[in-house]
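WARN no homologs supplied; continuing
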Amino acid sequence: MRRSRRGVALILVLWLVVVLTTISAGVVRAARTSSAIAANARAGVIARAAAESGIEALVAAIEDSLASLADAGDRQEWLNALAAGSGRDSVTLGDGRFAVTVVDVSARLDVNAASESALRTFFAQFTDPAEAAAIARAIRARIDSGTSLRDGAAFRPLTVTPIRSLDELHVARLVPDRILERAAPYLTVDGDGVINQRTASDTVLVAATGELRDEPSRLLLISRGWVWGHPLTCEIQAVYAISGNRLVFSHWRERSL
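OK structure emitted
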């Protein structure tokens, strides 16, 4: 009888050990998960702060340089060379780091500002005329989503829905991937219709119908921030118009990589 009771007690003890071990393992997993979530959240905050600091530092550096360039020719040369030499090394900021890049938006064809004819001419460099015409028509139809209608004595204005990123051309199936992959380096959605004839490629110039200048009218500043050793990266893209020696903010977008 005693041996039977001892056997039952041993089984209960073993089950208790198994239960406690399972609970302990669950607690450890939960602790690790919580630690990972906390680490990711911290890395995300630091990465964003670093990326934003990169934009602010870059704006200040550009404005200081513009203020020091009294000669118009020197100013043009500096602005036109800015994007080409913008691949800068990363900068340490506390626990974070950032790296910045400058894109001359005016060296690209703006999808929103280009007419259907300009888009047709542009895409004809990457496909046959019929498909180029269909792409151009689809893009303008997407942007000009309304129609101008007479409402009494006046006309109701056209409803315009600008494309916010080149990714929309893919997501909305406006441009086939095989064409978009080749055309994307020459396109932008951040321009104002002005083309920098000094830096724009022949691919862009052949379709340019807007104002031509000898320096950029807009710059796209890209800053990526991260914590050393952590995979999460925050990217901020900020578009600025150039007005005299100042950069005037236009719009901003960000994403985690």
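The chain has seven helices and eleven strands.
OK
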